[in-house]
Amino acid sequence: MRVAVVHDWLYTIGGAEQVLREILACYPDADVFTLFDLLSVEERWKLGFEKSRTSFLQKLPMLARYHRSYLPLMGIAIEQFDLSSYDLVISSSYAVAKGVITGPDQLHVAYVHSPMRYAWDLQHVYLKESGYDTGLKSVIARSILHRMRLWDVRTAHGPDAIFTNSQFVARRVKKIYGRDARVIYPPVTLSSRDTALPAGNHFLAASRLVPYKRIEPIVRAFNAMPDLKLVVAGDGPEAGRLKKLAGPNVNFAGFVSDRRLRELMATARAFVFAAEEDFGIVLVEAQSEGAPVLALGRGGARESIAAGGPHATGMYFESPDPASIADCVRSFVARETAISRADCRQHAAFFSAERFRRQLVSAVNEELEHFHAGRQRRSLPRLVA
Question: What is residue 253's predicted lDDT score, i.e. its pLDDT?
């Protein structure tokens, strides 16, 4: 059986690329297709492949910085891959990868991290961040995104089966595409520590410093709690503005290595997160290091945090505003000793890479059995009385 794995694009290693790595661990002989690949040789080795097959976008300038500017070309580019010689196609899609063209005798399974959020529910955020929210550029951008939504819905009927990373995304898939999806939670790189470290005296927020990650309300919440210390790890275009509004109890660590981030998680009193994520791998990473999580009670966080019962691993705040976040932090401080750091680590263990590989292979094998059984039925001659 020849296998092709199609990923949107490769220029950094994030959560979607961790999923790609585990897919390739299940199918090590698969050929990798992607719109463009800007990874180093070492990074490709870490993901489990030596060379990828790219589209014509690979030759276009300034891909790493301005790849979203090529959005109108991505649907066309993904459709140019010739996958006709493969028996099984697995797409890893958060933009256009699910739109590859396959034939009736090929099984196409799509792992949809999310429908294109900047074309759907994050459209207004994307337009504002790109400077396309007003004027003629806005009209052109909105027209392009409208066409992308039409293309996105049309190509959603191509995969024979859709897997998603959370029930939250499965509901989005049902609403946008009208398709049922099977949930296979993504793999998380769990802590390598044998036991949890004792908590230090800081709370931690970590993400790219962009508006939709909502670091600002977290900073403002801690400005109102000068007796509590917050460390913000990460960098981005919002860094300068956030530093100016932060109080003396808020420290910006800037970009940190994965090892340093894990240390900050392992010694944090709690990890604070105000964005609405499809799943939120970083929330599970923090729990695996023993840190309870205080998160916005929307999206994938509802599935990755245990907020009730005798083995709670965190708490929710219902609104991403400073007052709601501050109330949650204060409530956590009042019951901090009731949340076990060992329970946090045990809860996170459910989302291991081994569990993901086991569930993925099982689900793909089921789809292969149904696919071949259906093809055999279609090939039987029809008897005419």
Answer: 96
CA distance 278 to 169: 6
Residue 277 half-sphere exposure toward CB, CA atoms < 13 A: 22
Q: Cα separation of 279 and 265, whole Å?
A: 18
Q: Which residues contact 23 (CB under 8 A, 6 or more apart)?
A: 5, 30, 90, 92, 111, 360
Beta carbons of 105 and 21 less than 8 angstroms apart: no
Length of the chain: 385
The Cα 169–Cα 116 span in angstroms is 11
| SS3 sequence of 357-369 | HHHHHHHHHHHHH
Could you tell me which of 338, 325, 254, 260 has the C-alpha nearest to residue 294?
Answer: 325
Q: What is the C-alpha R_g of the chain?
A: 22
Provide the pLDDT confidence category of residue 125 given band limits of 50, 70 and 90: confident
Please name the amino acid found at residue 252: F
Residues 6+ apart with CB under 8 A from 2: 31, 85, 86, 87, 88
The per-residue pLDDT of the chain, averaged, comes to 93
DSSP one-letter string for 163-174: EESSHHHHHHHH
User: Two tokens at 71?
Assistant: 């959005």
Written as one string, the DSSP assignment of 197-242 is PPP-SEEEEES--SGGG-HHHHHHHHHT-TTSEEEEE--STTHHHH
